[in-house]
């Protein structure tokens, strides 16, 4: 009979999920954006994020990711949207950049996937 190893059980459970790593950012001269928090929507589920790395454990599948932030009279300023695929055991990276002019759409990109990210927050 094999002994129970909690580390192995956790690794098997994590292997069934992937990670969605979303990194909103802005140009340093737009420092006033530190006064607001970005909003992150994954398949219509909106959450308040933070500037920098936001990591979500997700089951494998296709997702629609949107990022924006509230700014004065705009409830969804510089909104950017991208469809991504999350694979089990991998971190899908998504970047969001605020444009220089705040009336334009944000830029979203998907760098190559990487291994799972550490969960220490």
Topology, please?
Elements: H1 6-15, E1 18-25, E2 39-42, E3 45-48, E4 54-58, E5 61-71, E6 74-86, E7 90-97, E8 107-109, E9 114-115
Parallel strand pairs: 1-7
Antiparallel strand pairs: 1-4, 2-3, 2-5, 5-6, 7-8, 7-9
Structure description:
The protein contains 1 helix and 9 strands, in the order H-E-E-E-E-E-E-E-E-E. With 121 residues, the protein is mainly beta. The protein has one domain (11-28, 36-109): Sandwich (Immunoglobulin-like). The strands form 2 sheets. Strands 1, 4, 7, 8 and 9 form a 5-stranded mixed sheet that branches. A 4-stranded antiparallel sheet has the order 3-2-5-6, with no helix packed on it. It is elongated.
Tell me briefly what this model is.
By secondary structure, this protein is mainly beta. The chain has one helix and nine strands, in the order H-E-E-E-E-E-E-E-E-E. The strands form two sheets. Strands 1, 4, 7, 8 and 9 form a five-stranded mixed sheet that branches.
Shape: elongated
Let me know the largest β-sheet: 5 strands, mixed
The proportion of strand residues reads over 45%
Structural class based on helices, strands and sheet pairing: mainly beta
Whole-angstrom Rg? 17 Å
Give the count of helical stretches.
1
What is the strand tally? 9
The run of helices and strands is HEEEEEEEEE
Unreliably modeled segments: none
> Level of helix content?
under 10%
How far the N terminus sits from the C terminus, by CA atoms, comes to: 36 Å
Please identify, by name, the CATH architecture.
Sandwich
